[in-house]
Design brief:
Layout: H1 7-15, E1 24-29, H2 51-63, H3 73-82, E2 89-93, H4 96-104, E3 112-118, H5 130-135, E4 138-142, H6 149-153, E5 156-162, E6 182-187, H7 192-201, H8 206-209, H9 213-231
Antiparallel strand pairs: 1-3, 2-5, 3-6, 4-5
Helix pairs in contact: 4-7
Length: 232
């Protein structure tokens, strides 16, 4: 479906409720043409035969120098993901407003999208080993500990893709006879700035989703840009 006006978003989200990872997951992408795949599964980063996991192991062995420690491989992948490494984890949120922000905060000249996914049947345990990840086939959910303020503030969850380029299977919804388990909402680029302003009113912005000095600076720059534009 394609969003017709900002007010419709509220009505849509009332139909898809999530509670602590049960119900629905939400993801925003700034370009509606982008694939719904983790970075390690996209053609510019994809390495067959689980070689992305070896790249992660190489990253982790050097990240120790910066004080990195993780309790298990999934936690390590989550931390690496939030520092920009191409992993087989795909970010989702329990909060649809967070997904909305990522759909509208960049690529202002192209349509964005919000994905709504029914929570999957398979959930990853924290004690999952790297060998189990390599031997698994499919996509499953992972609810991380609050390994960083970003994960906490973004109500973050992940899907884990095995192998990294494994797409989410489209199946019949368990809640509706007329829908699938994945819903895609197109956000016209003309509505992006309006939605961004509404999200700011709700406290969804760079300073809250990225609770550090970088996020605060980006938010203040966004405010300053708005002040300049009002004068012209």
């Amino acid at each position: 479906m394609t969003l017709d006006r900002v007010e419709t978003l509220h009505k849509i989200f009332r139909c898809y409720r999530s509670h602590k990872g049960v119900g629905y997951l939400f993801r925003g992408q700034a370009n509606s043409d982008w694939q719904l795949l983790p970075k390690a599964g996209r053609k510019e980063f994809y390495l067959p035969d689980n070689r992305d996991l070896y790249r992660f192991h190489d990253w982790e062995s050097q990240a120790i120098a910066y004080g990195h420690r993780s309790a298990n491989i999934l936690e390590g992948l989550a931390i690496a993901q939030h520092h920009g490494l191409a992993t087989r984890l795909l970010d989702w949120s329990q909060n649809p407003l967070v997904a909305s922000y990522f759909a509208v905060s960049s690529c202002k000249d192209v349509d964005g999208t919000i994905y709504i996914l029914e929570a999957l049947d398979l959930y990853a345990n924290h004690d999952l080993t790297i060998e189990q990840i390599k031997n698994n086939t499919g996509v499953y959910c992972y609810i991380p500990r609050a390994v960083s303020p970003r994960v906490l503030n973004q109500k973050g969850m992940f899907t884990v893709h095995c192998p990294a380029n494994k797409e989410i299977d489209l199946v019949k919804s368990r809640f509706s006879d007329t829908e699938q388990n994945l819903t895609k909402i197109i956000i016209p680029h003309a509505l992006k700035n309006e939605i961004l302003n509404v999200l700011d009113d709700y406290g969804i912005d760079d300073s809250t989703l990225f609770p550090d000095l970088d996020g605060l600076s980006r938010y203040k720059n966004w405010e300053t840009n708005g002040m300049v534009n009002k004068k012209t």
